Amino acid sequence: MSRILGATRQRSRLRFDGWIAGLGTSSGTRVVLGHWPRSPFGPFSDVMLERADGERVLMAPTRETADFVSGTYVFDTVRVVPVQVSVDGHAWTVTAGSLALRFTTGRRGLLGLLLCAVPGALARRPAWSALTAFPARALLPGVRTRGSAGGGRREWYGARDLRPIRAMSAVFEGSDLGALAPVDPPVRFGFGSVPRKPALTQVTTTVELVPE
Q1: Are 41 and 68 in contact (CB under 8 A)?
Q2: Residue 45 bridge partners (DSSP)
Q3: Which of 161, 149, 139, 163 is nearest to 206 (CA)?
Q4: For the whole model, what pTM was predicted?
Q5: 76 SS3 class
Q6: Nearest to 199 by CA among 69, 18, 24, 48
Q7: Is 39 helix (H, G, I), strand (E, B) or coil?
Q8: Which tens digit of pLDDT belongs to each residue from 116-141?
Q9: Beta strands 56-60 and 77-80, pairing class
Q10: Could you give the angle at the alpha carbon of 205 between the alpha carbons of 204 and 208, nearest 5°?
Q11: Residue range 53-80, pLDDT digits in tens
Q12: Handedness of CA 67, 72, 78, 80 (dihedral sign)
C-alpha cells in the first residue's frame, strides 16, 4: 500500500470504478461484493461478510488490498485469499476462499433507469454524491453516499446503475447460507449499508486519504 500512498501525497483522492452487490440470506449472513475493474491497485475484487452473530469478515486477494480496505472499513477478521469473479450476462459467479456464491440480476427498475441517465463524468464527482445524499437516504434506507471512513478517511459513492438481485446460492465454510433475503439487519462495515433489497449497483467510490 505504501506505493499507492506515496504516489498520492499531492493528490489525496483515490477512485474505484466498479460494482457493489449486497445480499442477505435466510441464515442471517449478509454478503457485500466489491468488483473493481478500475482502481489504483489494478483490477481486483473483495468480499465483506457479516455472520448472523455479528462477526465481520473481509476476504481480499492481496495483502496490499486487504490493508487498504481494512484501513477504510471495520472488520473482526481479515483473510488474504484468492477472489475470483466471472460474469455471464445476468449471472455472477464468485469464489473467495471458502465462499462460493452465485447470483442473478433482474431488469432495472425506475431508479436504475434514472441512474443510467446521469452522465458518468458527473456521477464520479464527490459533489454529486453530496447532492444526492438526502434523496438516497429517503429512497434507500440505510444507504449513505458520503461519510467518514476508517483512519480519518472520507468517502463518496456515486451510483450509475442499480439492478435487483433475483436469485442466489451460497456456501461458506461448507455450510449452505440459505435462500436470498433482505439485508437485515444492515451491515456494519462502515458509515452506511447497502440497499435492504438485494441489489447490484454500478458505482464510483472516491476515498480521500488523510494528508501526511
Answers
A1: yes
A2: 35
A3: 149
A4: 0.88
A5: coil
A6: 24
A7: coil
A8: 888 777 777 777 666 665 565 555 66
A9: parallel
A10: 140
A11: 999 999 999 999 999 999 999 999 999 9
A12: negative
Tell how far CA 91 is from the center of its chain: 18
Contact 181, 169 (CB under 8 A): no
Question: How far, in Å, CA of 42 to CA of 112, rounded?
Answer: 27
The radius of gyration of the chain from alpha carbons, rounded to an integer in Å, stands at 16
Query: How many CB atoms neighbour CB 23 within 10 A?
Result: 23
Contact assessment for residue 72 and residue 53, using Cβ atoms and an 8 Å cutoff: no
| Strand ranges, E, within the chain | 13-25, 30-38, 44-50, 56-60, 77-80, 83-88, 91-96, 99-105, 146-148, 154-172, 175-176, 180-181, 199-208
What's the grid cell of residue 65? 488490498
Find cell 439487519 and name the residue.
185
Q: How far apart are CA 20 and CA 205, in angstroms?
A: 10
